[in-house]
């Protein structure tokens, strides 16, 4: 009886592992639907993904929406540069971009080991917003999925995003030494 019970348990475990393995292999990358213009500023996740998607799909209107109104024009006037063209040229690749996914975030807070007050001050300095108007600050991890011929690859990008009066905006890229 003991041998028969062990055989049945072993057989059940084999089936469970077999189906679990098949299921995870069939999923592939978890590409999320493209961000719409209406979604861009509704969350840190969406603004970070919209930023990446705008550069890879040549969508200047979406890129502009990732920043507060007038911010890019102000930067362009002071530097004489077209930031969209600069960023887009840096991300030129010889592959097809299949999509993006938000694959994690960390609140930019003292509890997570970040200098939250310093980042708030930096946002104020760069954007001109009042310190008290800045809501949450996050580091968003966005995975971009590529393919060329029969090869597939992905790359992770990390961005600091912030909230002002319920709308989320891009600030800058950041180092990828953040744990997610």
Quickly list its features.
180 residues, alpha+beta, four-stranded antiparallel beta sheet, 4 strands, disordered N terminus
In short:
This protein is 42% helix and 27% strand. The chain contains six helices and four strands.
Characterization of the model:
This protein has 180 residues and is of the alpha+beta class. The chain has six helices and four strands, in the order H-H-H-H-H-E-H-E-E-E. It has helices at residues 2-27, 44-57, 60-65, 71-79, 83-90, 116-127, and strands at residues 96-107, 134-148, 151-164, 167-173. The chain has a four-stranded antiparallel beta sheet with strand order 1-2-3-4. The longest helix is centred in the N-terminal third of the chain and has 26 residues, at 2-27. The chain is globular, with a radius of gyration of 22 Å. It starts with a helix and ends in a 7-residue tail after the last strand. Residues 1-26 have low confidence and may be disordered.
Radius of gyration: 22 Å
How far the N terminus sits from the C terminus, by CA atoms, comes to 48 Å
Report strand %. 25-35%
Our count of helices gives 6
Order of SSEs: HHHHHEHEEE
Q: Would you tell me the structural class of the helices and strands?
A: alpha+beta
- Helix-residue proportion: 40-55%
- Overall pLDDT, averaged? 82
Q: What is the 3D form?
A: globular
Low-pLDDT sequence parts? 1-26
List the strand order in the largest sheet.
Answer: 1-2-3-4
| Largest sheet entry | 4 strands, antiparallel
Number of extended strands? 4
């Amino acid at each position: 009886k003991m041998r028969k019970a062990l055989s049945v348990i072993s057989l059940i475990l084999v089936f469970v592992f077999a189906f679990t393995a098949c299921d995870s292999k069939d999923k592939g990358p978890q590409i999320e639907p493209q961000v719409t213009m209406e979604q861009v500023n509704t969350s840190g996740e969406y603004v970070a993904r919209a930023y990446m998607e705008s550069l890879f799909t040549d969508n200047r209107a979406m890129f502009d929406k990732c920043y507060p109104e007038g911010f890019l024009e102000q930067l362009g006037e002071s530097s004489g540069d077209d930031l969209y063209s600069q960023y887009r040229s840096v991300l030129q690749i010889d592959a097809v971009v299949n999509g993006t996914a938000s694959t994690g975030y960390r609140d930019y807070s003292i509890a997570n080991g970040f200098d939250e007050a310093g980042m708030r001050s930096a946002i104020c300095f760069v954007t001109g917003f009042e310190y008290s108007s800045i809501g949450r600050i996050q580091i968003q991890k966005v995975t971009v999925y590529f393919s060329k011929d029969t090869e597939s690859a992905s790359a992770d990008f990390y961005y600091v995003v912030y909230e002002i009066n319920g709308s989320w905006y891009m600030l800058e890229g950041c180092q990828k030494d953040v744990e997610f």
